[in-house]
Amino acid sequence: FSFADLALAPFLARLYLIGIYNNNKELTVEEFPQFKRFFEWKDAIAARPSVQKSTPPREYLIEVHRQWVV
Questions:
Q1: Distance in angstroms between the alpha carbons of the first and the last residue of the chain
Q2: Which residues does 30 contact at the CB level (< 8 Å), separation at least 6?
Q3: Contact present, 48 and 1 (Cβ < 8 Å)
Q4: Which InterPro entries match (predicted)?
Q5: Exposed, middle or buried by CB within 10 Å (0-12, 13-18, 19+), for 56?
Q6: Report field, pTM of the whole predicted structure over 0.70
């Protein structure tokens, strides 16, 4: 777990919001196979206990970020 991982973890934890507000589905490796390593890295970061403890629930983030959707 590097400083770069630490700095990017909050953004990675919210990446699903792009798909939710764009087409109501999450971005997946099946849809973007060229980014397989990125998705593996993102999932590894999300699996860390420290990231899980510090990330708000998905439902909360979806509702809070709804105000910025155009």
A1: 35
A2: none
A3: yes
A4: Glutathione-S-Trfase_C_sf
A5: exposed
A6: yes
| Local structure of residue 66 (DSSP, 8 states) | G
Encoding tokens for residue 31?
């849809």
Domain range for 55: 3-68
Give me the number of domains the chain comprises.
Answer: 1
Q: Among 3, 2, 13, which residue's Cα sits nearest to residue 51?
A: 13
pLDDT, tens only, 13-69: 888 888 888 777 778 899 899 999 999 999 999 999 999 999 999 899 888 888 887
Range list of H helices, 1-70: 3-13, 16-23, 36-47, 49-54, 58-65
